[in-house]
Amino acid sequence: MAATTAAAQPALTLGISLRGVEKRFGAFAALRDVSLEILPGEFVALLGPNGAGKTTLLRIAALLSNPTRGGVSFTNGPATISGRVRAQAIFHRPKHVIGLVAHNTLLYDDLTAAENLTFFAKLYALENFPTRVGVALEDCGLATRAGSLVRTFSRGMRQRLAIARALLHAPSLLLLDEPAAGLDRQGLLWFGDRLARLKQAGCTVLMSTHARNESLDLATRAIALAGGRVERDSGSGGDPAPLLAALRSEA
Amino acid sequence: MTTVRAAGTILAKELRLEFRTRELLTATVIFALVVVVLFSFAFDPTPAESRRYGPGLLWIAFLFAGSLMLNPSFSREQSNETLDALRMAPVASFAILLGKILANFIFMSLAEILLVPIFAVLYNVSLAGIVGRLIFVLVLGTLGLTVTGTVFSAISAHARMRELLLPLLLLPILTPLLIAAVESTAALFAEQPTLDRTWVAFLAGFDIVFLTASWLLCDYLMED
Fold this sequence. Notes:
- The structure holds two protein chains of two kinds.
- Chain A contains eight helices and nine strands.
- Chain A has helices at about 1-10, 55-60, 85-90, 115-125, 130-140, 155-165, 185-200, 240-250, and strands spanning about 15-25, 30-40, 45, 70-75, 100, 175, 205-210, 220-225, 230-235.
- Chain A has a six-stranded mixed beta sheet, with helices on both faces.
- Chain B is an all-alpha fold.
- Chain B is about 80% helix and about 0% strand.
């Protein structure tokens, strides 16, 4: 359990600053002039209908995609650097503290659960990685299937492993894109508990989800996107409950 | 994590995946074998013709098989978007490319180890006394093929018609390598085998230029 506690404590907290971000795919603008300051330690719920730009925003924050215009930077990290991937390739230290749960699992189907986690633990140069992998598998309830190929897993099991992979290096900035997809009741409870522990540890969370997700109770801020723009924002230090209630009733 | 260590981790993953599924290696070996056997049946070459045309047939078989094998190198990272996970890891972009280049080099070399003796039997070419020099030429030629092929596999991975695009991009670029590899191999298959230093130097130069270019351009190659 000591390893679990250690893994739950981020080394440092990281905030994100988006300034006038625009992302175009040909003529289509997925994001238009998005400016946001996400403070270190905030738990932000990112809501909006399909095509609102949530995934695009998360990919830009994860440094997987370059904005067409505007910039992304990180605050309170090892260095405040340009968020452009090209710059990131040179100063890749913040990658150590960013975790992503994406639409896809980011897992290799022909590797076992343990092999997948071990591979990423090695890439992140984690110390004592066999123990950490064991603890992560135990934590997500897949210890008994550690030696099974991921391709034999159900959707929910894959999603649990995808979450375990994203948390393996104890990120202090966690980007979640519809993370509850495919999780059963037990999985949702585990995930909610995991998020609560991360919030308590001071991890910054940016979670794209739908308005009925139970984990929204943890949110300290709610942002609604529509048509690639920030439509409503409860703001840092504000109460996200009225906005979440309004979005729930709209949904 | 150092680039070499990260590349080693990615290489180990590639080898584990390939030896578990045996998708690439089996297809590559069978394809190259079919090409070599068909040419043998179609031309029924005499020993003199084998010395003249054999190197070209051998390298064309490697080139076609290579373009078949190199295509999935990056495209199979797309099924679960695992390339995003690699790009998010705190490793240099070149480590990802280098790990894949080394894996493809090993797969291609294994295919050649199986194919060259079969080629020697079918085309009545004696390898006695030239094995060491032939391996040297094969290593240089294969390195050029895998470096260039892996880079173009990364470029074409996001394209819609990537299976068609890779050979269309790769084969013209590899023409100088093909000429140098064929000439070097032909000099070894001659009645008086020699290592043609000019063509071997050309092969080495090709490898250095493309390896350096892949190192310089890897950040752009790995971008979305």
